[in-house]
Fold these 2 entries.
Entry 1:
Amino acid sequence: MSERNAPKDFSEIPTEIIETDILVVGGGNAGCFAAIEAKSKDPSLRVTIMEKAHISRSGATAAGMDAINTYIRTDKGETPESLVKWSRAQVGGGPIREDLALSNAEILNESVEMLEDWGLPIVKDEDGHYKLRGRFDISIQGEQLKPIMAEKAMEMGAKVYNRVAATNLLMQDGRCVGAMGFGVRDGKFYVFKAKATIVTTGGACGIYKNYTSDYSGAHHQTWMCPFNVGTGYAMGIRAGAEMTSLEQRWVAVRTKDFSGPVDTLSVGYGCLITNARGEKVLRERYAHLGGDKAPRFVRLNAPMMEWLEGRGPVYVDTTVLDEEEAKDLREDLLNERPTFVLFLASRGIDITKEPVEIYGSDPYIVGGHTGSGFWVDIKRMTTIPGLFAAGEAAGGSPNKFVGGCAAEGRLAARGAVEYLASVQLPEADPAILSREKERVFAPLMRGPAFDGITPVEMEERLQRLMDEYAGGISQFYRMNEERLDYALNNVKMLQSQTQYLFAKDLHDLMNAHEVVDRLDVAELLIHHLKFRKETRWPGWQTRMDYPEPNPELDCFVESRRDPSTGAVEVFTRPYEQLIPGDRTQG
Amino acid sequence: MPPKVDKEKCDGCKAQQEPLCEQVCPGDLMTLGEDKKAYCRMPRDCWDCMSCTKACPVGAIETRIPYQLGYHLAKLIPMMGTNTITWTCIDINGKVERFRYVNRGRLD
């Protein structure tokens, strides 16, 4: 379809203007919950979802999930406070936004139970409680997780615009009054005018090269959804929103050569991480940092250090499993990453006889896992009035995962409903619309003689640059000031060359805007990495020139790009401890 | 080469404006060729999520592991029931395994 409807001339491009009360940009986990919550608070509200793909299988949970990693079993003595303490310890003591994390935790269980009511199979123990596979992890048979959420959003009356890619926020008098974008299938220019806008576009994948990347077959062998490119962050950055903690990158330990989940094996089934010598790595070498329960960045960095120090490959030892457990494990994997089961079959691996090899992933910017994203207030409003953020898009509160992103989507919707009562829909400024229409469609209109750059070429240049100079996996996540300066200079060069991007069809046009968005995220990310002149979370953030933590940087690193000058300001905000106790202990 | 379309089985979802694989692909990668059969426009960009494979009403799509990562030839075939899913997995040595479980509804 995208070839057939590609406009050849600006005059051919229809503009569709939609008025709504709440616009949700991105119909994933947080977006669906935001739409459902808004409609349940006030069914008369017009709630519109702008979705780049198709809502039934879009975003990070497209393939399904095998667990909800945060649920508070109060009968086991767990509380919202104990969850937040655990989350804080998982990121080495923070800093984290404990206010945000607590408010998520307070409605977390209810949000998970809503999923069960809508038809998500959640595994129970003999007492009828959700069955724990870790302290806060519960097992689900979540192959249908995404369709279930999507159907509920539509049943509640949210209007979904599938295959509409967002390109910029609609700003007027310093506030956000909607968003603009284009139809990936119909080639139209879309303008959504909204009293309140909620960004739930997920995180950013593909800022860095992954180690299996090659042109012909395995470019997207990534853990995070490769179609989540950081568009929400980028739109916010271009409008001058404040971003937080981008330097707290999420890098995960994954199965080697095929990004399968490791927690399912190590947490869910008790398969320990072992090195080439058969040593239990975390237990024997990292006992002082918590052993098997060490913070997540330690669990990532440990296997990579084994490689560097000559004790790789590294494995999760699945040979402790019997046949039945091995089958249960693969059934779990089929719910989240079905092709990992196919991968094991394609290697002829019987996991009861040989262990599964593991390795680090490429780095991602994902605020549902670490603290990166929009700086938001307790109502999830960003620093731009009228613009809310939730899920992977909202920063400050790590370890949200499926349940926490659902909870936060609901909180953002409550904030948006409250906000919109006091505002009116303004008339859209035609100059802004025509400028954006021209920017969006320009790569399609270059003409046959144009000698330019394809989106794929620019994407690959960016990804290799970031990998080598801004701490990607080929460098074992390490960086220094000079390499970061090199990366920043070259990102700026790439930004200056986006004028040469050309697209042959609407799919290509989407790819062109994806690389533009990734560049803006990369630019601010490098500023954050440069500012944190210390090493606080080795693996996630490793500065070879500043290898130790600096107590003076026990704070949030923030950034803002001036929309008129392009100047980037980097500054700090203090950490506020609300839950007392040792921050490194969960 | 992740989604491999069997051109004999694929009917382009006939009267549909877009075949189901094209409707559902999170990466906008599945589309119809001039022969009215589905194909993946950019196999390198596939995330291997299997949404297209699950959605295909005639079982014409097979998800393959790129050869750069896995050996020839393993198969994983999903069958969607009303509230269940059944997977058949065949490894490179010809070992066949089946997995069947509930994917919709409360587990009480």
Note: Chain A has a mean pLDDT of 96.
Entry 2:
Amino acid sequence: MKMSEQSTNKETVDLSKVEKVLEKYKDVRGAVIPILQKTQAEYGFLPEPVIDYIAQSLNMSAEEIIGVTSFYAQFHLKPRGHHIIKVCCGTACHVKNAKALSSKVREKLKININETTEDKLFTFEEVSCVGACGIAPVVMIDEDVHGEISPDKLNDVLDDYKKLGV
Amino acid sequence: MPLENKNKIKQPENETQPVVAVCLGTGGIAAGGDKVFKKFEDEIKKLTLDASVGKRVCRTAKTGCRGLCARDVLVDVTIPGLETLTYERVTVDMVPQIIEEHLIKNTPVNKWLAKEDYHKFHDSQQRLVLANCGIIDPENIDEYIVRGGYTALKKVLETMTQRDVIEEIKKSGLRGRGGGGFPTGEKWASGAKYSADEKFILCNADEGDPGAFMDRSLMEGDPHAVLEGMIIGGYAIDATSGYVYIRAEYPLAVKRLRYAIQQAKERGFLGKNILQSNYSLDIFIKEGAGAFVCGESTALQYSIEGKRGMPRTRPPQSVEAGLWDKPTVLNNVETFGNVPIIINRGADWYSKIGTEKSKGTKIFSLTGKVKNPGLIEVPMGATIRQIVFDIGGGIPKKKKFKAVQIGGPSGGCLPESLLDSPVDFESLLSLGAMMGSGSFVVVDESTCMVDLARFFMNFCASESCGKCPPCRIGTTLMLDILIRITQGQGEESDLEILEQMSDEIKTMSLCGLGQSAPNPVKSTLRYFKDEYIAHIRDKTCPTATCAALHRYEVTSEKCTKCMACVRKCPVKAISGSTKEVAFIDKEKCIKCNLCYEKCNFMAIK
């Protein structure tokens, strides 16, 4: 079987990216998690053909790999939006009304937790703690931490991202 | 015990240039620290090029977390020979004036200098482990070395046997800072007993407790101190390699630690034949993937191996068969941070700090409803009052202190009557809380304790790995009961069931997550039972947090007619004036809770 390209019912997935990742980790012990992390960074999520390919290369079953991906919150088996909104729901944020921030996202973008907007611009998640409790409540958008944020300020920040687009 | 002032910020010796140090921890960066730093660099570059402005050569420095994140961006300006001055809430626009007046004319911009409570925040602490945080540039190994870095490692490798190191740590009384408080020296001694072709020293940087960021700040602010402690630990147990297991949610800490490892290797502090001692150690970073349970030692090891992070039964203990079934010693970030201090200053000196059974200092992340939230370090045995009021500056918005939640989802809530209790391993346990990793969340009178218990139980139920039924099913059932109570559907018998389930889950669960999951419920039942009863019997939430029980009525004795709620109401359901107590029209009210949050006088129920 030709390994570099595999097709699913709907789409063809380019496997050269995952090949490179696997090459990099071929001598590393216990590398399943870093491989999945780096692969997800390439594809944005973990497409099924890619998981099959990883399983085959590591001489593991696809079930074992899925077992790992489903255990850890970081892995996603479905495509996600361009920007990831993480509303922190840690203790410090909780007592400073993080709930209102989640409601704001829900109301403004019309999506629920772990859903993606139709234009694929935003995915909305609640996370347990981003460790920036000194500036609670906190919303993380991609890698940027927005501290001491109010629902109104969050509204403006989301507008800025909308303007930026993809 | 009085907290002494030992923390005056000193500038590194031999400094002849003025130094502008910008706080660039996660908090600093979130507040715009990057931009402020860039502006300082640009402006200073521009000015030194122009000789007529002044010949003074300036240096900008990045530092880690200064502790008081709410005042970010914090900027220290040091003119050689003079005391360091700190500016708070610095923005890009303020930079030119600070340079012009302070750096060039030597007249500090007084109006922007940190106020008295910033100094009180610092001066009430005893910063040992955090001594370098916020002072040195964490990406520059030389700054760590100038302040005594890697001297402990040198001393160990040149003058101490492995047994000496273990004895010294034992004598110091150092106990694990990750939660349980197991004596570090004992752990190392049992780790040293087993020999194998491979042995591992692990650093647990999977700081998953919501409300905790001590380890993140230490790794971001002083990564070499953690590495140095880990290398010393590695030497003591004769480890062949080391892993730092760190949360992927901490990108900056990962970056700085990687950088530190590379620099330490270049200088011969790490790698083959460290400082010509014949001892070799490599340290690798493993990023976690988002699972709270991986803070448990056996789960953490499975995760490093690339498996699902589910704890296993013990024995065998990790020191006998841990990572890849080889002898393994696991310590927390802060524990390693203490090690170089003990080696440098001696166990006798170290063991004078703290209480009889809890030695040294402890770092807490002080957050929640407190005026100065931030990262603090106090001697063990400091009282809750000292932490909340002396350092934290008390409760904002004229509200009243209600409780402090110590130890995250494994810890408990302690009420006002216990404000003068000392904070150490034994005292906290006896009161129903736990040191945990050190989250310290202050709660005021507007927080519902039943809802807080529900919050933690929700966390534990969703983070339970699912392996053992007492934890998997037990936490879910307890959560169901708590949700019912917060929705006004609680029954009198629920409290008894909660108590009983707490004990069962505690005794029957496989790992620490399940064993400690009932603690927030147990402690709130112990100290705030009346709130549970109000929810169950009277169907009211005394703090109006639980939306299903809201009444939205104004208590006329408490209303000051300030009209804050009237202005805030988005549907104009509140009428009132400066002469008239506010009134909420229930027909129009959409129960958005904004009026309740806005009211500073707890007048809305």
Note: Residues 1-13, 49-56 of chain B have pLDDT under 50 and may be disordered.
